């Protein structure tokens, strides 16, 4: 990576699951580099959702490297996910027509409940997994398909773990790591966030800060997507032979299905 930056740059891996992120330093200057980053990083940067995009370069092998302003900040703590600034930024993301238009231009098809179920079925067949809890979960997803269809799709981040929310030294909040983003029902993001970080008795207040009233429709859709995402996460861990996490997710899925079937 150093050779195309020029003399005096030191580059080191920044960690992460893909191994495609780096920190580059030259004297007082530090930038965050990523190989083959999200194609809509420029829109995310322009809207202040991620740290500022500085430049983009295409390498001889066809890879694209992006450089962003290095943020001297910190990840949000789990307890901070209940705060209004998190609801406000997620509402801004979900409400961005520019982001949605960019996604559609690059041919991103919406992740509908039908597509989600079909993807899960293919993964289950590929891994030859048979389990009573997963079967119950899949039955629930299929039975509720018609009830959770929702036409107003938005750009969803799909991995809103508190570690992906960065607060810089000026208290500016960012949501990073957009590699898994898709177009879908906003309930996909909302369900994962609320079920993971916000006590149920506070959902109504949190959603009001987001700009939504808590009703039967959003509750049903959030629950559906949490079950679907939990099965998807279970399969991800299963493929990596992380069986302790698989068992934990089985228990969690079982708890989600109590009184639902």
Automatic annotation (TrEMBL):
Q: One Pfam family this chain carries?
A: APH
Gene3D superfamilies from the entry? 3.90.1200.10
For this UniProt entry, which residues form the secretion signal?
Answer: none
The Aminoglycoside phosphotransferase domain, residue ranges: 13-221
- Record's InterPro entries? Aminoglycoside_PTrfase, CcrZ_PhaseVar_Mediator, Kinase-like_dom_sf
Protein name in the entry? Phosphotransferase family protein
The organism's lineage is:
Bacteria, Bacillati, Bacillota, Bacilli, Bacillales
